[in-house]
């Protein structure tokens, strides 16, 4: 590898970074085949630099059959041909670095694709073979082994399908997600060694960090007990063995100056914080804030809880409004129920786009004002709503495994609109995108928003540019009416958000830095509007 063309001096950049999530398949299509790719993404790096983000987090870009959007990995050391080549990925990492943008990749350690060489070898080797010890193969229960080895549920919300698949030779194998994603056996030393080698492979190619998918699911109770017996600890969630795995990973990352962010869904704050001890993960996603309804008391509680659970281990909080699995913010905030829960997703839920947009603009300023790092999902800076996908075009296995009850996640994965006057809104010049774009998609195009001082894109660019003025110090809540959230940062900046139908007076200040919407004629803060002020 060549020497980096841009040297980063801030070793703790991740504590206050703005990180942009790239779902490659839907970002930008460079070769016109309908699928986003690295060539398209490289052409958009100036856009991302102008947006002002510190890093890009890429959803899996590895060789994959795409049975679950790339989270079924067949080869961690190869880029999927639909996206490009390893050489292109190396160029992308270097070109982004030259613009001051770091790269974070996604690792999926719980499972691999059923096309992975290890699993194909296990199938060929047969029952009782060493190759099968890399996974969870078991005989079935019942007189003839016709019943699954246990009662564990699928990790796909709404799915009633089993997590065990039986092979013609009689063995069953475990897959907490789809049958095409067999779970690895993390008690096997070869599994641990392989993943440490994968980390080294990518750190040596210049990546700055790694996001860990389903980080709390890797370790399994070797006895595979039924959940109906209420075993303690849980047989496959948040097991103590995980911490030794991540301490080993941390040693690898520290050798390269790399960082980790874990996808850790846990209700227990103390258990959650264990993953963020100084010798484990650097950060973890904050799902309580993401799933919180647009309500001042609930949001303040989520903020306070998040900061409190991170404080004992000295880890920075992360703030995120949306990602590749979640209903887009504009749509969710326009609904009667503004919270997010996989279990409540349904077709035909009414939404008010104007209301949702107003709230999403305010939420952008709220999240970017909080201490810690912020993750921005592609298209949120354009104010994209959740798209309604015709059922015959839905690809997400969540939809299919729920029997059609769950609309799935494709609605937030629709290819981005770049240019209003071009075919497919500029996503690609020739082939129809892999997911259909709504008819109104050109109205959200980046080129149109760049010329509009009141657009969502302009708001995000302005906020990210101003964010350093907020400083890196703690948050202090200010006295405010019940339906107003107001806090100051050590740098002298103030953020205020009004949730009330009654306009609110602004906190005492010397300068208005930014507003998510216009103030009223008396200079007060209208409902669902946020401001940044200088004290």
List keywords for this structure.
535 residues, alpha/beta, 5-stranded antiparallel beta sheet, 14% strand
Helix content: 10-25%
Rg, Å, rounded = 23 Å
Strand segment tally: 18
Order the strands across the largest sheet as they lie in space: 11-10-9-5-2-1-13-12
> From the structure provided, what is the oligomeric state, counting identical versus distinct chains?
single chain
Largest sheet: 8 strands, parallel
**Low confidence ranges:** 1-7
InterPro entries: GH, GH13_cat_dom, O16G_dom_2
GO molecular function: hydrolase activity
Keywords: Hydrolase
Protein name: Glycoside hydrolase family 13 protein
Description:
This protein is α/β, with parallel strands linked by helices and 535 residues long. Helices cover 25% and strands 14% of the residues. It has 14 helices and 18 strands. It has helices at 38-43, 45-51, 86-98, 117-125, 189-203, 241-256, 269-274, 287-290, 296-310, 329-332, 353-369, 397-401, 446-450, 456-466, and strands at 18-22, 55-58, 62-63, 75-79, 102-107, 137-139, 164-166, 171-174, 209-212, 259-262, 283-284, 318-320, 373-377, 475-477, 484-489, 493-498, 511-515, 529-534. The strands form four sheets. An eight-stranded parallel β-sheet has the order 11-10-9-5-2-1-13-12. The chain has a five-stranded antiparallel β-sheet with strand order 14-15-16-18-17, covered by helices on one side. Strands 6-8-7 form a three-stranded antiparallel β-sheet, with no helix packed on it. Helix 11 runs parallel beside helix 14 (456-466). The longest helix is centred in the last third of the chain and has 17 residues, at 353-369. The protein is globular. 48% of the residues are buried. Mean pLDDT is 95; it is low at 1-7.
């Amino acid at each position: 590898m060549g020497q980096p063309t841009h040297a980063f001096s801030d070793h703790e950049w991740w504590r206050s970074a703005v990180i942009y999530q790239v779902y490659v398949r839907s970002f930008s299509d460079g070769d016109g085949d309908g699928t986003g790719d690295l060539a398209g993404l490289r052409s958009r790096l100036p856009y991302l630099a102008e947006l002002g983000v510190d890093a890009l987090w890429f959803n899996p870009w590895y060789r994959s059959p795409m049975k679950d959007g790339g989270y079924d990995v067949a080869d961690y050391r190869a880029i999927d041909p639909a996206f490009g080549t390893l050489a292109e990925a190396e160029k992308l990492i270097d070109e982004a670095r030259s613009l001051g943008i770091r790269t974070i990749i996604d690792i999926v350690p719980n499972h691999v694709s059923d096309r992975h060489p290890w699993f194909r070898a296990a199938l060929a080797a047969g029952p009782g073979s060493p190759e099968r010890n890399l996974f969870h193969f078991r005989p079935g229960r019942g007189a003839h082994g016709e019943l699954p080895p246990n009662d564990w549920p699928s990790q796909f919300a709404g799915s009633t399908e089993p997590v065990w698949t039986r092979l013609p030779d009689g063995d069953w194998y475990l897959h907490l997600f789809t049958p095409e994603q067999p779970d690895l056996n993390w008690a096997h030393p070869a599994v641990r060694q392989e993943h440490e080698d994968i980390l080294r492979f990518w750190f040596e190619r210049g990546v700055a960090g790694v996001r860990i998918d389903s980080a709390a699911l890797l370790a399994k109770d070797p006895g595979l007990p039924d959940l109906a017996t209420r075993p303690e600890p849980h047989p496959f969630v948040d097991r103590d063995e995980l911490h030794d795995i991540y301490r080993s990973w941390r040693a690898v990352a520290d050798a390269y100056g790399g960082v980790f962010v874990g996808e850790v869904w846990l209700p227990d704050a103390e258990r959650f914080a264990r993953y963020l001890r100084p010798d484990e993960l650097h950060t973890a996603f904050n799902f309580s804030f993401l799933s919180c309804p647009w309500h001042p008391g609930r949001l303040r509680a989520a903020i306070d809880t998040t900061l409190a659970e991170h404080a004992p281990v000295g880890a920075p909080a992360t703030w995120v409004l949306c990602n590749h699995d979640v209903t887009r913010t504009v749509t969710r905030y326009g609904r009667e129920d503004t919270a997010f829960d996989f279990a409540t997703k349904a077709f035909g839920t009414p939404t008010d786009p104007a209301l949702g947009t107003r709230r999403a603009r305010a939420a952008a300023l709220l999240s970017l004002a909080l201490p810690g790092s912020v993750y921005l999902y592609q298209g949120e800076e354009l104010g994209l709503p959740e798209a309604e996908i015709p059922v015959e075009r839905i690809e997400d296995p969540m939809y299919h495994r729920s029997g059609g009850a769950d609309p799935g996640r494709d609605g937030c994965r629709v290819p981005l609109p770049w240019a209003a006057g071009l075919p497919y809104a500029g996503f690609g010049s020739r082939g129809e995108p892999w997911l259909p774009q709504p008819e109104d998609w050109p109205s959200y195009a980046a080129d149109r928003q760049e010329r509009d001082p009141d657009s969502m894109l302009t708001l995000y660019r302005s906020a990210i540019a101003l964010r350093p003025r907020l400083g890196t110090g703690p948050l202090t809540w200010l006295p405010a009416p019940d339906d107003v959230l107001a806090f100051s940062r050590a740098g002298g900046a103030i953020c205020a958000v009004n949730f009330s139908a009654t306009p609110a007076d602004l906190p005492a200040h010397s300068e208005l830095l930014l507003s998510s919407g216009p103030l009223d004629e008396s200079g007060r803060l209208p409902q669902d509007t946020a401001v940044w002020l200088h004290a």
